[in-house]
Amino acid sequence: MTDTLFKRNLTIFLLTTSLIVMFDQASKAVVAGFLKPGDSVNVIPGFLRITYSTNTGGAFGILQGSRHIIFFAAVCVLIVIIVLFFRIWSRERKLYSVAAGLMIGGAFGNLIDRLARGKVIDFLDLRWWAVFNVADIAIVAGVILFIVVVIMDYRETGTVPGG
After folding, report:
1. Which residue from 120, 111, 94, 103 is spatially nearest to 31, judged by alpha carbons?
2. What is the pLDDT along the chain (163 residues), one digit of tens a residue?
3. CA–CA distance from 142 to each of 26, 78, 109, 126, 152 (Å)?
4. What b/e string do you get for 46-57 counting C-beta neighbours within 10 Å, with b at 16 or more?
5. Domain segments of the chain: what residues?
6. Other CB atoms within 10 A of residue 105 CB
7. Under DSSP, is residue 147 helix (H, G, I), strand (E, B) or coil?
8. In 3-state terms, what secondary structure has residue 121?
9. Catalytic one of 113, 122, 125, 153
10. Which long-range contacts (CB under 8 A, 24 or more apart) does 146-149 make?
11. Backbone dihedral region of 162: left (phi > 0), alpha (psi from -120 to 50 degrees) or beta?
12. Is 136 considered catalytic here?
């Protein structure tokens, strides 16, 4: 691995993480600034509403009221992903850096809410799914991208990163 490859991937990782955290926090600030909890605005009739909701639990509202468990689990996941990035993924395709940045940025975005407010602000409401936010989208997109890149690597080389 070259030092240049590591620097490139680290830059991609940090930029992706920063952009996700900024966009997530800015979008939540706009919602909190214009709506009261429980308020809802129709954006695309029959498809998308902006609904100011809060969540003290985990994804999709599981473990409501278990702030300390959720916080501890989130910190553990952050640590694992950061360690994996620096030990393995930073030396691989740049798409691993994007995937890690999406996951870490989303996790940090929701962790900031938990530390600052004791709950996460959710606002994207498809009416047929749990209300979610930009951080949630980033986490899911990062996991999907990671799986796709691992499959691509396996098909090309017969191995996976770190394997």
Report:
1. 120
2. 568 888 888 999 999 999 999 999 999 999 999 999 999 999 999 899 999 999 876 665 555 666 667 677 778 887 887 887 777 666 677 898 999 999 999 999 999 998 899 889 999 999 888 899 999 999 999 999 999 988 888 888 777 666 6
3. 20, 13, 14, 21, 15
4. eeebbbbbbbbb
5. 3-157
6. 27
7. helix
8. strand
9. 122
10. 146/96, 146/99, 146/100, 146/103, 149/93, 149/95, 149/96, 149/99
11. left
12. yes
Q: How far apart are CA 135 and CA 127, in angstroms?
A: 19
Q: What is the DSSP letter of 89?
A: G
pLDDT of residue 23: 98
Which single residue is written with the structure tokens 């809060």?
Answer: 54
Residue labelled with tokens 């938990």: 114
Q: Write down the catalytic residue from 24, 113, 125, 136.
A: 136
Predicted confidence at residue 156, as pLDDT, reads 81
pTM comes to 0.85
Q: Is 109:24 a contact under the CB 8 Å cutoff?
A: yes
